[in-house]
Amino acid sequence: MSDRDDWWRRMHPPVYIRKESGLHEKVEFTDLTSWHSLSIEEVRRRADELKDLINTAQDERPVQAYLEQNLGLLIQLVSCGPRAYVLPQPRLGSEYIPDFAVGCLSSGGIYWTLIELENPNFEVLTRQGQPTAKLTHAIQQINDWRIWLRDNSQYAQNELGYRDLNAEFNATIVIGRRKEQTRRGQQRY
To answer: FRET label pair with 16: which of 26, 34, 126, 180, CA 20 to 30 Å apart?
Structure first.
């Protein structure tokens, strides 16, 4: 282990996430530095695999599974540095389960992005250019997470182990296909 890695571990200790069993699981930061050493061809290959998967997926589950195996692609989505906490399907109490929580480490603490995956076949906008019910539902899920965290941020941080997570988290919804949108729809969303 290098001096830099040792310093990083001291400055960014693991988080402990409470599991359903009541036990806490130690979650170390996800070291994604290996993604920075991948060849352009390998990154393109993995991106092409994801694109092919999205083109054939009937729902979001295979996309979730692929991203869990290729966390570097997910980190690119949220513009995180090479080291982060990546938690698939973290629980917010018993009520809510985002698809991913990504905690980006910085000198100011952990900056969280919660991600909601939706079916890649869902339409995002109606023909009139308005959000569909599926998109509105995803937006409401994020609003519900924010409400829950406003009421329970201390519990989330201290009992569930999501250090620094509060209602001001960033959020990303992955839904539908850009190629099926009008130019105006692409600009709006």
So the answer is: 34
